[in-house]
Amino acid sequence: MTTDNRPAPPFGRALCAMITPFTEAGALDLDGAQRLADRLVSGGCDGLVLSGTTGESPTTTDAEKAALITAVREAVGDRASLLAGVGTADTRHTVELALAAEKAGADGLLVVAPYYSKPPQEALEAHFRQVADGCGLPVALYDIPGRTGTRIEPDTMVRLAGHPRIVAVKDCAYDLLGTQKVLSRTGLAYYAGCDEQILALYAVGAAGYVSTVANAVPDRLRAVLDAFDAGDTGRAALLQRRALPLIELMMAAGLPGTVTAKALLGALGLPAGPVRAPLRPAGRETVDGLLRAYGTLVADGGQSQV
């Protein structure tokens, strides 16, 4: 077994950034959400992130966000932690969503840096502190400057780590040096938010991952962490590489992960439904490619030995 001093993962190791299923008419599909959540947890997910980027949070209402938490909690019970995406461009609104998530049964909050207004670091820090002070749930900071336009700088992370309810980071900053600096100076639990970095960040001390690709293959990604924890780092690397074709098609082929995840799940007959505008569905060629990569990955007989 591998041993190190990484913090205990506050929300588990293997988390899925779950899509939000809709009906064909575009309404919230709570039954589908419950069935998908049960499948993901049964497949190895320790936790689910609801209403994140993959969950189409910009296009769901506050009431839909709360209803989704309540429904998924009913489906998974205490088998998995639930993180609610509550980040908005408005601090006051974010606090309101945090309180609603707490009431609906969430275990923690995922709070993205405010987008569009591009607050400086001092204002950014104040925003996160106000949200963390505003309710009783633990907070995971969501650092994804490619979408928000604002980086949560490592020094800001270090200062925020002193807050008793700021406990984790979903890392989509693509800054391995910065991540290691924060890991070395704080007890924050880092979660890889980019599927191609799952093993790389775990190897330097991350707590686990928040994965979009896990919507389709939760067991295959969990196996990477399990192999590493068992001390079989070579197998962990092999399993990460085997997942790469599907990861690339879902996350780096020019379409948002929400679009590709829903396309693949729908093609597999799993709860998904359409995306909401302004997103548009994937084309037939994309769906066929996703199915081929998925089929190759799940047909790998060696996986069953993990």
Task: List strands and helices in order, with pairings.
Elements: E1 14-17, H1 30-42, E2 47-50, H2 62-76, E3 81-85, H3 91-104, E4 108-112, H4 121-134, E5 139-143, H5 145-148, H6 154-160, E6 166-171, H7 176-185, E7 189-192, H8 198-203, E8 208-211, H9 218-229, H10 233-251, H11 257-267, H12 284-298
Parallel strand pairs: 1-2, 1-8, 2-3, 3-4, 4-5, 5-6, 6-7, 7-8
Helix pairs in contact: 1-2, 2-3, 3-4, 4-6, 6-7, 9-10, 10-12, 11-12
GO cellular component, one term: cytosol
Keywords: Amino-acid biosynthesis, Cytoplasm, Diaminopimelate biosynthesis, Lyase, Lysine biosynthesis, Schiff base
Organism: Streptomyces griseicoloratus
The gist of it:
The chain is of the alpha/beta class. It has helices at residues 30-42, 62-76, 91-104, 121-134, 145-148, 154-160, 176-185, 198-203, 218-229, 233-251, 257-267, 284-298; strands at residues 14-17, 47-50, 81-85, 108-112, 139-143, 166-171, 189-192, 208-211.
Share of helical residues: 40-55%
Please state roughly what percent of the residues sit in beta strands, choosing from under 5%, 5-15%, 15-25%, 25-35%, 35-45% or over 45%.
Answer: 5-15%
> What number is the mean pLDDT?
96
Low-confidence stretches: none
Q: What is the helix/strand order?
A: EHEHEHEHEHHEHEHEHHHH
Protein name: 4-hydroxy-tetrahydrodipicolinate synthase
Organism: Streptomyces griseicoloratus
GO biological process, one term: lysine biosynthetic process via diaminopimelate
GO molecular function, one term: 4-hydroxy-tetrahydrodipicolinate synthase activity
